Amino acid sequence: MTVQSAWTAQQSHIWPLTAARATDGMLTVGGCRADDLVAQFGSPLFVVDKADVLSQVRRYLDAYVNVADELAGDVFYAGKAFLSVGVARWLLEAGLNIDVCSEGELAIALAAGATGSQVLMHGNNKSEHELQLAVANRLRFVVVDSVIEISRLARAATAAGVTMNVLVRTTVGVEAHTHEFIMTAHEDQKFGFSVASGAALAAVKAVIAEPALHFAGLHSHIGSQIFDADGFVIAATRLSELAADIMNECGIAIENLNIGGGSGIAYVDSDDPQDIAEFGSTIRALVRESFTAAGLPLPHLLVEPGRSIIGRAGVTLYTVGTIKPVHIDEDRTRVYVSVDGGMSDNVRTALYDADYTTVVASRVVSADSSTTLARVVGKHCESGDIVVRDAMLPADISPGELLAVAATGAYCHSLASNYNHIIRPAVVAVSDGSPELLIRRETIGDILSRDAQAGE
Question: Which CATH architecture best describes the domain 51-309?
Fold first, then answer.
């Protein structure tokens, strides 16, 4: 059925593994036509390539779990990127664990069949109730983020008569080369205990002092959308130094070292993320070198990928609405192409100044076709409601055509809102020519059902 690529050769690393074109030019993913999917599930629509997700899972297992060395560890999928019961089932069946950071994410993981031993809980402000749920479900690890939280968890564990495994989240003072809002290991931010100030060592001692808590290791996460291992070099060194201090002052060796996630994906041609296998090999080498140099036993290694598993697998389909040429200056005109979604289904452009790649999904645009500088915008009452800031689209683009935006599997649906009371799109998985609904499209009835005075 497919005859040619949906993109240029330079863009092939941006789109899902199974994305292609049908004989009439229609974009297909997982063997499903974009127009058929929109007809069945509505527009906008999130499409997830199951084969792509499972391919990334296998690569992570081979990089961190199925390795013939003493640093073989475990992979916890970061549910904040995107989580549904269906996707969680794929991941659990494939051999991953799940990282959650709220009662809702925990509920999804449990509904998918996860046992407590397959779940790690994050969060900088876990409520008493969430910590009680962590205890009740005997989660494998709770990552503590404040002194208050240590006390809260200890009370909950004591009341239940159990001992909880605790990882202490550290701030190692590394500023990853990414957007300010997704850097998480510099000193002046909300996450973790500072290594440099001594707060991290004090937190470890506070955990050790609680009979109902077991100090199970350290956690570090330096940021997101990271393309190289430079920041991890510093992080590994500082974590090994902290581990040495813990050994010297407390007589305890680090059992587990969670180095977080943050591996980036390609959103545009120029993005060049490091191969998962190479990254894994580099990380293991860094940990081995730093801990060996400190005279410490090697820890069990934990990683938390999210975006790099689900991000590329996702494509958003939009329907073009209005088209408006806007004169910029004497030499330039930009065409504003409005679609039927926007910042309510993808806030990343407004929030992080993110870049995306888009193509017309409903036809092939030949290399010699006339194109125009376009900005793909949403239908919300905000000038910052931009989906793709700069795109070269066919000059004859018209209302009713389908646009596809690549690499929207992570942090799009999970950050979606009902701004302007716009309903959130469906999420559908595609595989071997068959669609499977993961999350249904909302209705106006859903909007009104939460309004306590609707219908009075």
Answer: Alpha-Beta Barrel (3.20)
